[in-house]
């Protein structure tokens, strides 16, 4: 199984040929899901005691598996938060996989860790964090948010212990209802409660946070606050400057979830919306979203990484060797993971090849298309723009439509391979939502989508 024998040679040629063909698709087809019974029929008996011809298995993958997956790297994928990885990042992801790099420690992967840290440093610089900042790459925003909020809680616990104070029965973290769903999930896992702060036009502000804290009768139990740098549903950037100021006044850990919107830091037209992010104690950005990297990749950056290291470093006799030299950087010490792939390397390669100006241009292209789409909606008498877009998300309604109408519209567009769009909710109402991240998405595609609502 491990020799580069005749079978491996055949597999290599087949896989190289397929990947070359897949990377040359322009545009990438949208495709559509398939019912379970159809997949079960086509894939029955594949896995068993005896192997199969590799070309046959690859053909099955191409004709059945891959075509029952909606391609999120298609310029017609405008639902959820899509991905549009660069060709450079996709190709280098193959290199990383072939090398089978274990990205736990400096001892095992100094070169890979250093390269990843170059990217983290770049992100920290765009966010205005100090030279001390650092962190690691994790699988996604959910893992990053959980890891950061654990550090927030443990930092507060240690501060109370050091002062001889009394620990609260349960800690709390302040956040708005507009925070990503992973925040509530992380708090539930941590057995931490939420102090829900009312929003103003769906935006968390420093003024609202201060009012909520002043009105609360148990302030000593609040250990942190979460703000969002680009909400998933509407692309709203919270009042980071105001929230950060209040967090600092009250000694609260300030976490900014930029999983979707963090790449906006590279775009001059929206850079000002992130004022205050430089005050953050921790930031999460997902390169597999608007940084054009392959799945699965999220960057977790701490202002003072030593605080995270004190919480997340795992203690075991077989790990002593990687902690013998404290000056060495071990990514496993900065999140709840241990084993990890060097998932930041495809982004590192792509950034090194393309440069940050190209990234900024791609983001600006999506922002420009967003503004053009808003103008089309404003000009259509049967459509209503729900709010001015801040980043690359457009929320709007079709006058007179019900939830069933939106669902039928979504299904029809996918069946006809026009686009993959899904309805969302805004203030309790089912509405339409478009997300623009792929730099190759054209206004003509948007016109097709809107024409289907006539």
Keywords:
11 strands; 42% helix; 454 residues; seven-stranded mixed sheet; 14 helices; alpha/beta; four-stranded antiparallel sheet; globular; 12% strand
Task: Give average pLDDT, whole number.
Answer: 96
The biggest sheet amounts to: 7 strands, mixed
Q: End-to-end span in angstroms?
A: 58 Å
Class of secondary structure makeup: alpha/beta
Order of strands across the main sheet: 1-7-6-5-4-2-3
Helix content: 40-55%
Number of helices: 14
Gyration radius, in Å = 24 Å
Instruction: Let me know the number of strands.
Output: 11
**Succession of helices and strands:** HHHHHEHEHEHEHEEEHHHEEHEEH
Which percent band covers the strand fraction? 5-15%
Runs in which pLDDT lies below 50 for 5 or more consecutive residues are none
Gross geometry: globular
How do the strands and helices of this protein lay out in sequence?
Elements: H1 6-23, H2 36-43, H3 54-65, H4 87-99, H5 106-127, E1 134-138, H6 141-163, E2 172-175, H7 181-190, E3 193-196, H8 206-215, E4 222-228, H9 240-250, E5 253-257, E6 282-285, E7 298-302, H10 305-312, H11 345-354, H12 356-379, E8 383-385, E9 393-398, H13 403-415, E10 424-426, E11 429-435, H14 443-451
Parallel strand pairs: 2-3, 2-4, 4-5, 5-6
Antiparallel strand pairs: 1-7, 6-7, 8-9, 9-11, 10-11
């Amino acid at each position: 199984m491990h020799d580069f024998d005749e079978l491996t040679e055949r597999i290599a040629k087949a896989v190289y040929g397929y990947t070359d063909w897949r990377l040359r698709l322009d545009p990438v087809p949208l495709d559509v899901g398939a019912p379970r019974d159809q997949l079960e029929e086509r894939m029955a008996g594949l896995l068993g005691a005896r192997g199969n011809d590799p070309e046959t298995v690859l053909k099955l993958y191409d004709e059945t598996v891959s075509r029952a997956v909606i391609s999120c790297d298609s310029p017609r994928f405008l639902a959820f938060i899509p991905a549009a990885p660069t060709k450079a990042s996709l190709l280098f992801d193959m290199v990383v996989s072939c090398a089978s790099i274990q990205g736990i420690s400096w001892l095992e992967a100094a070169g890979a860790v250093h390269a990843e840290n170059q990217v983290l440093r770049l992100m920290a610089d765009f966010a205005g964090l100090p030279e001390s900042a650092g962190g690691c790459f994790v699988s996604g925003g959910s893992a990053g948010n959980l890891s950061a909020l654990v550090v927030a809680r443990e930092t507060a616990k240690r501060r109370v212990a050091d002062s001889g104070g009394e620990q609260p029965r349960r800690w709390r973290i302040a956040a708005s209802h507009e925070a990503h769903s992973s925040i509530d999930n992380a708090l539930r896992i941590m057995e931490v409660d939420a102090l829900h702060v009312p929003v103003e036009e769906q935006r968390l502000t420093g003024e609202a946070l201060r009012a909520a804290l002043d009105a609360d009768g148990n302030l000593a139990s609040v250990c942190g606050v979460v703000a969002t740098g680009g909400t998933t549903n509407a692309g709203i950037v919270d009042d980071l400057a105001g929230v950060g100021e209040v967090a600092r006044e009250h000694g609260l850990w300030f976490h900014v979830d930029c999983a979707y919107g963090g790449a906006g830091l590279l775009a001059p037209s929206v850079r000002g919306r992130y004022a205050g992010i430089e005050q953050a104690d921790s930031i999460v950005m997902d390169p597999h979203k608007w940084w054009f990297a392959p799945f699965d990749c999220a960057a977790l950056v701490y202002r003072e990484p030593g605080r995270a290291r004190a919480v997340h470093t795992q203690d075991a006799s077989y790990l002593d060797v990687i902690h013998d030299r404290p000056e060495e950087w071990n990514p496993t010490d900065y999140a709840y993971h241990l084993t990890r792939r060097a998932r930041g390397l495809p982004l590192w390669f792509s950034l090194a090849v393309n440069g940050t100006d190209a990234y900024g241009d791609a983001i600006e292209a999506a922002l420009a298309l967003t503004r053009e789409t808003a103008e089309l909606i404003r000009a259509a008498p049967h459509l209503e723009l729900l709010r001015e877009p801040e980043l690359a998300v457009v929320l709007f309604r079709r006058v007179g439509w019900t939830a069933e109408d939106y669902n039928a519209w979504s299904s029809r567009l996918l069946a006809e391979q026009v686009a993959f769009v899904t309805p969302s909710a805004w203030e309790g109402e089912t509405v339409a939502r478009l997300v623009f991240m792929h730099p190759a998405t054209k206004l003509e595609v948007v016109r097709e989508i809107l024409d289907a609502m006539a």
